[in-house]
Design goal:
single chain; 806 residues; alpha+beta; four-stranded mixed sheet; four-stranded antiparallel sheet
């Protein structure tokens, strides 16, 4: 045995190389996500193990300990704590925007409670997690050996889902870290589709173009984020900076509102927290700051969170200014936090800082490769199947000769060779013929073979065309993204507010002057009251874009409520509405076919919201019960299929409800005596009027019993009139009511109603976008059972569609 020879090494170089090897191992194998599927190795291995175990959403949950053991034993030998904690985080809806694991049991809480031990909890894949593994069995990604070389695991997942931007990521490696915020699925899909549409000129696509669709992060806990910060006296768009460079600092803030209490006191209610803020520790910090007198004006503090969501109540001392207390809370507690954006991820195994655009382009490149490999795999299988079917067709065409050849063959191998030699078949075709069951000899089976061959040939042609056209591959990606948005898309949770960084309170950005909120057919805008004016001369017909549907003069700190025909309500503070004209459907993110029917100023919580539907249902809800709508859009009424909301109004609870139908019937009844308040947002209300076949409610009004106003009705063919409200008898609801117009084929059905008073004007909007302004005196006063007089402002081919009092 020879003695080992001594070697001289440079200790500095040896240490440097060893440290670099260790650093790259941590970076690649543990700390950073891959840009292609947005997963770190441990997360990828957990999902692949669950897929291998068949833990799909429709299957029962399995013990977490069983899943952790599978991951440890096959793919990730780094300790059970690392695997279980990673799986727990993927199941927490307050940690990730779209949970990839469906957990059952105690998986922790926003209070920082630890999850139960893995022997007590159960888990399976969530529905959206399946999108990361779709087509993994079609040679779409490379597989590599696991740690002991006994099994294979995917190096990356096919990832139909743009997961890196959706769930975000955080991690600390050696000498670098990543902190990618989560985003909204629908917004990311829209931006990717825009990038696909402009893929040929992608170098010209700017970050501003993408931010039309992705305005900013969307955290799972909601809250507020601010777009602008002040640096050296200059306002900087920090969200744009983060997306343009891959680095930035975004300020997050809790969502709060102030509720009035008795005896002149008020309370601050916190309903959403900044991302990753521990609620229990926040409450402890507030209490500590109060004891230290760093925060003043707080008399009581309690946590009222429950099944309805987060609710931390901060009661104020008498005379304390809520805005001043809020400013102290924001400055001394984690009710305001900074999210440091570092969009660092692995690109081809190397860490790269990724601006938003490059992050999306890398994902599209990955999906393009996946679809190309999937199509090639499917094409090979289709060609093989077509080849087999061609052999079966030959056998069925020469059935007797085939049977005779097989019958006279001594061995199966001999039969195969004879078929290959005599009928010019391949060995695969000959084997398929020998394996063909006798039932395939029936004539109906022959037609099935021909039909299948035709389908397979068509599939081959489609796949060949797809592989030959890079544009078709990109269109396929676009279709899949749209499917993801339709299936899993939801509304944005985090609200983005424009502001300066100067004290960090919303009150700093609220103008004290009166504002006018203007809602037109298509747009929404708020302007200072002193700058608002519009042309409304009577008898003049103008285009609708020059007018508006409704305008409200309200305090800048007030609240307004948008109500849509789909029964949804959007509650906004006035100062948060756009100062420049903005499409109302885009601002409120309305669904297709959804439109705003009412814009209401919300008074005190003692008032009532009264709603009426086209099918005659009436619902009354206290304004105080609409508090959840301030957080995000919510339902204000449950609608049956085919029904829609047609009216909404605010009352003091002592008035009367007047309903008018398209066939000229009307009913007037006491609001307080006939319609009890309902709390549930999905409640459908009560029957207000009995409607005949084909009839529907086209208008409603809230009137005072002593009201001297007059009801104006407008028909489809332009007939209108006004009738005193005193002519409409008061009766109980759920009746047919009384006649309000004498309708015929010449007048058409009623399409619009309004209550008009002396000195007011009526704006009538037509189907073709024309508008006419009529003074009170210009509308003829007639009895209820009359047809009215035709409005001459619109042509014979046009017709009124809506009437608004101005």
């Amino acid at each position: 045995m020879s003695a080992a020879r001594d070697q001289t090494v440079n200790i500095r170089e040896e240490m440097e190389q060893a440290y670099l090897d260790y650093a790259m191992s941590v970076i690649v194998a543990r700390a950073l996500p891959d840009v292609q599927d947005g997963l770190k190795p441990v997360h990828r291995r957990i999902l692949y193990a669950m897929h291998d175990m068949g833990l799909f959403p429709e299957r029962p949950h399995r013990k977490s300990a069983r899943i952790v053991g599978e991951v440890l034993g096959k793919y990730h030998p780094h300790g059970e704590a690392a695997v279980y904690s990673s799986m727990v985080r993927m199941a927490q809806d307050f940690s990730v925007r779209y949970p990839l694991v469906d957990g059952q049991g105690n998986f922790g809480s926003v209070d920082g409670d630890r999850p139960a031990a893995m022997r007590y909890t159960e888990a399976r894949m969530s529905p959206i997690a399946q999108e990361l593994l779709v087509d993994i069995d079609k040679d779409t990604v490379d597989f590599v050996d696991n740690f002991d070389g006994m099994l294979q695991e995917p190096s990356v997942l096919p990832a139909r889902l743009p997961n890196l931007l959706l769930t975000g990521a955080s991690g600390i490696a050696v000498g670098m870290s990543t902190n990618i915020p989560p985003h909204n699925l629908g917004e990311v899909c829209d931006a990717l589709c825009y990038l696909i549409d402009h893929y040929e000129e992608r170098d010209e696509v700017s970050v501003e173009d993408l931010m039309q669709f992705v305005p900013g992060p969307d955290f799972p806990t909601g809250g507020l984020i601010y777009r602008y910060r002040e640096y050296d006296g200059e306002q900087v768009d920090v969200i744009r900076r983060a997306y343009a460079t891959g680095r930035g600092r975004i300020i997050m803030q809790a969502r709060t509102h102030v509720e009035e209490m008795s005896r002149g006191r008020s309370r601050i209610v916190v309903t959403e927290l900044p991302y990753q803020v521990n609620k229990s520790r926040l409450i402890e910090r507030i209490a500590k700051r109060v004891r230290q007198e760093q925060i003043t004006g707080i008399s009581d503090l309690r946590d009222e969170s429950g099944r309805q969501g987060l609710r931390v109540v901060i009661e104020l001392s008498r005379g304390a200014d809520p805005q001043e207390v809020l400013e102290e809370l924001f400055n001394h507690t984690r009710m305001r936090e900074t999210f440091g954006v570092i969009m660092l991820a692995l690109v081809d195994g190397e860490p790269r800082l990724l601006p938003l655009k490059r992050c999306m382009l890398e994902y599209l490149d990955h999906r393009r490769e996946v679809i190309t490999r999937r199509s090639q795999h499917e094409l090979e299988r289709a060609r093989h199947r077509a080849h087999i079917l061609e052999g079966l067709r030959i056998a069925l065409d020469q059935l007797d000769a085939i049977i005779d050849t097989i019958r006279h063959s001594r061995w199966p191998r001999t039969a195969r060779n004879n078929l290959v030699r005599e009928f010019k078949l391949s060995e695969a075709q000959a084997e398929a013929i020998l394996a063909m069951p006798l039932r395939r000899l029936a004539s109906t089976e022959r037609s099935k073979v021909d039909e299948e061959y035709k389908d397979v040939s068509s599939r081959i042609s489609h796949l060949e065309d797809l592989l030959a056209s890079p544009r078709e591959i990109m269109e396929t990606i676009k279709v899949e993204l749209q499917e993801l948005k339709d299936k899993y898309g939801d509304e944005r949770r985090t609200q983005i507010i424009e502001r300066e960084e100067r004290g960090y309170t919303q009150a700093d950005f609220v103008s004290r002057e009166e504002q006018v909120v203007v809602l037109t057919v298509d747009t929404l805008q708020r302007v200072p009251a002193e700058e608002f004016s519009f042309w409304r001369s009577t008898g003049v017909t103008t285009r609708a874009v020059q007018g508006h549907l409704v305008h409200l003069e309200v305090d800048a700190q007030g609240m307004v409520l948008f109500i849509t025909n789909r029964g949804r309500g959007f509650k906004w503070r006035v100062f948060q509405l756009p100062e420049e004209e903005e499409p109302v459907s885009q601002f409120l993110r309305l669904d297709e076919g959804e439109e705003v029917i009412e814009l209401l100023a919300l008074p005190s919580e003692e008032a009532f919201l009264v709603l009426a539907t086209a099918q005659g249902q009436v619902k009354r809800t206290r304004v105080a019960d609409l508090s959840l709508l301030e957080r995000r859009p919510g339902r204000v009424i449950g609608l049956e299929e085919g029904d829609e909301l047609c009216f909404g109004g605010i009352s003091d609870g002592a008035g009367e409800v007047l309903l008018v139908s398209s066939q000229g019937q009307s009913i007037c009844f006491s609001e307080d005596e006939e319609v009890r308040p309902q709390v549930s947002p999905s409640a459908q209300g009560v029957i207000g009027i009995k409607l005949g076949e084909g009839d529907s409610v086209v208008g409603a009004a809230l009137v005072d019993p002593q009201d001297q106003g007059e009801l104006v009705v407008v028909s489809a063919k332009g007939y209108l009139k006004r009738t005193p409200l005193q002519d409409y008898p008061r009766q109980g609801r759920n009746g047919k009511g009384v006649r309000t117009a004498n309708l015929s084929e010449r007048t058409g059905e009623l399409v619009a109603t309004a209550v008009l008073r002396t000195g007011q004007k009526l704006s009538v909007l037509s189907q073709q976008g024309l508008r006419a302004y009529l003074a009170f005196e210009d509308i003829p006063q007639m009895e209820r059972n009359t047809q009215g007089r035709r409005l001459a402002n619109f042509g014979r081919q046009d017709a009124p569609a809506r009437a608004v009092v101005i």
